[in-house]
Structure formats: C-alpha cells, structure tokens
Amino acid sequence: MTRFKKLAGNPVFIVLFAFAARMAILGYMSIVARTPVSAFLPFGYELGRVAQSIADGHGFSSPLRFFDTGPTAWFTPIYPYLVAGIFKIWGIFGPASKLVIQTSNCAFSALTIIPIYAIGARCFGKAAAVGASWAWVLLPTSLFFPIIWIWDTTLAALVMGLLFWATLVMCEARTLAAWAGYAALWAVGVLINPSLLAVFPFLAGWAIWKSRNGPISWLRLSAAVLLVFSAMMVPWTVRNYRTFGKFIALRSNFGLELWLGNNPDVPDTWTPWLHPNDSREEAEKYRSMGEIAYMGEKQQLAFAFMRAHPGQTVYFMYRRFVNTWLGITDSPVDEWSSYPWYLRAFVILNVLFSVFTWIGALLASRMKSAYAAPCLALLLVFPLVFYLTHSSLRYRFPIDPVMAVLAAYGVTGVLSLWSERSAAQPGAATPAPPAVAN
Q: DSSP string of 240-290?
C-alpha cells in the first residue's frame, strides 16, 4: 500500500497514466465513432483552412470553408503553422494528420499535469498537488477536448499553466535574463492564444510587485518584461500592417465575435448559424467586403445593438456568465430532463468543479495565502471578454489547470470543516487546518 501511494503521488506516473487514458479513449472513439475527416468540422473550419492554405503554399489566408478569401489575421500564427507543418508531412486533412494532431493534443493535456502539480505544491502543499493532478486526469473536458477539438485549446491550457507557475517562481528570480525569459514565454503564449493577454498585466504586475525589494528595481524589471514581450509581438504586427494597411496587434475578428453574441437574433448566448463558416450569405459578404471592412461593420452593428438594447445586453452577459461556469445555457430543469445520463453526470461534475474552485479561492484569501491574489485575478479577469462576446467551456479551458488546483484545495477545506465538526464531539482530537503557503 505504501509503494502504491508513493507511485500515485509521483507526477511522472500521473502524466504517463493521463496520456495512456487519453490515447485509450482516442483509440476507442476511432473504432466505435468513426468520423470522416471531411466531416470533422473543428479540423476543417477556420484553423484547419488557414493551415491548409499555408501547407498549399498560399500563405496565412482563407479561413472560410466555402472558398478562398485571401490573407487573414483571424488567428495568431503559432498553432496554424504547427498544424500546417503536420499537413505537409502527413497530408492535408488526411487521417494520419488527424491522428498526429489528436495525439499531440493528448500529450499537451497530459503534460499540463506538470505545472498543475508544481502550482499545487507551491501554493497549498503536496496533498493539494496530488489531488489536483488526479482531478485533471479525470476531468471530462481535459479528457475529450484534446480529441474532439483540433484547435489551440489544449496547448493554450498547457502554456497558461506554465505561465502561472512561472509567475509564482519569478518572485525569487534575481537576474534580468530570467525576467526576459519570462516575458518571452508570455509572448509565445499570446501568439498561441491571444485571450491569455487579458491576464498578462495582472500576473506579470503581481510578480514584479512581489520582487520590488530585490536586487533589481521594479522599474527595470517592468521595462525588461515589456521590451522583450513587445519585441516578440513586432514581427506579427508588422506583417498585419503590411498586409492590411492597418494596425492589428494580434487578431482581426473581435468585431465578428462581438456581433455573434450581440444582435437581434441572439436567443440566449450567441448566433452560431450566422457565422460566415456556417452561413453562405455571410461568407459571400465577407468575401466581397474583405476581412477588415467586414469585421469593422460587425463591430459597429454590435455596439449599436448594445447601446439600443442595454437590458438585453446585460441579460446575454448573465447567460454567458452562467454558461462559462456551469456549462449550461438553458434552464437547468429543462436541460436535466432532456439530457441522457452521461450528460447529466457531465453537468454535475462541471458544477462541482466550479463550486470547489471558488471555495478554494475564497479559502486561500481567508487564510491570507501569498498566492490568493494571482488566483483570483485569473478567475475574475480571464473570462470577461467571453461574457461580452460569446462563451463556451472550451474558451474557459486555458484557466482550468489553475482551477483544478483551487478545486483540490477547496475539497480539503470542506473536509477540514467537516472534521472540525466531528472534533467538536467530546473526546475528539482537534484537526489541523488545510495547508496554505504564505
């Protein structure tokens, strides 16, 4: 039993077990639910189309599945080029390419356990680290997103975990070279998934503030981080300016995403059927107007709707808030009655995951943990743009690794409270409070 407990607490074993579990699911799904590559929509939609264009030698262009539309800034470059490289080697939209990408995503998901374990051990102790790691092994979204979504989703979660871990470690850094590396990691993360930029000033700012009494002044640290980060953004921004004649720091599609969630046809959170990759009418408009003009018009329409319908806008944001944290859009009673058992289980697990995450965050604040502030910043700031545009558990997924750590700590807090009540009985021993790093 002691050897088994030691093995179960070994992060290397947990990573290997997680990868094996994901590959087993992938193998099972490839047998019982064979999906033709041409019908595997996340593979063939915007990201896959841009990767196809790169692999075909036409450059970073044409995100729509209906026809070629010319250069695009729909994505930042790293993941589309990664997929394009796989296409070049194993075939464009081929079954081998699909398998390689899914296997890579399974590896990214399993490797995310490394920062999860490190964050948990640093913030709340080994028990929380082990609990969070195993929670990630079994978390439904971390099991199925790597297989179902051929997108940057899983890689972004790995990088966000590494960035959060690096943020905690940087408080002890004593050289500008280390801070330059930290800034470079942020730049890579943002060029994989721009949504990570939302928490960059908060996490980097916290790390710099915690290091203000170190050998390097906070002004020099701030300058070094901003200089390296900005320098790594320049090539992509210059490419966009030269291509479109307009300053586009990262992506061009904010106007479309805002309009999809804020227009007269929105029923609850957004209107996916109006997306130009689902509506040929919108696709034709996109092609005739050009990407930049099309996105600009959609942004104007969205803001006009929001100004004219503030009540509906707030209601949509509330529905997207619920969807972000609970994974549901309709009435829970309606969804529960129509869902099969496995979807009911998914809803229950996701609700518990979110509830214990917030319990862990609040408990860390109450215990005055040194790491409560960056945890709360991540939970409060990262989803804001999705409340405004449209939401999905997939969009929240990059912060799920840190949520796993907080949820594990939340569980220990609830168990500790339960033990305290038991200890109140005559003759019972007083339990120790859950560990927290300060």
A: HHHHHSS--SS-STHHHHHHHHSSTT-SSS--GGGSTTT-HHHHHHHHHH-
Instruction: Give me the amino acid identity at 364.
Output: A
Backbone φ/ψ region at 305: left (φ over 0), alpha (ψ -120 to 50), beta? alpha
Q: Which pTM does this prediction carry?
A: 0.93
Compute the distance between CA of residue 251 and CA of residue 47 in angstroms, rounded to an integer: 13
Taking only the tens place, the pLDDT of each residue in 19-49 is 999 999 999 888 776 655 544 455 668 999 9
Rounded to whole angstroms, how far apart are CA atoms 85 and 7?
Answer: 37
Q: State pLDDT tens for residues 319-351.
A: 999 999 988 876 666 666 677 777 788 888 999
Of the chain, the end-to-end C-alpha distance in Å amounts to 32
- Cβ atoms of 198 and 378 within 8 Å: the answer is no
Instruction: Please give the sequence-ordered ranges of beta strands (E in DSSP) within 28-77, or none if there are none.
Output: none
Instruction: Find, among 407, 405, 384, 380, the residue nearest to 395 by Cα.
Output: 384
Q: How far apart are CA 150 and CA 45, in angstroms?
A: 10
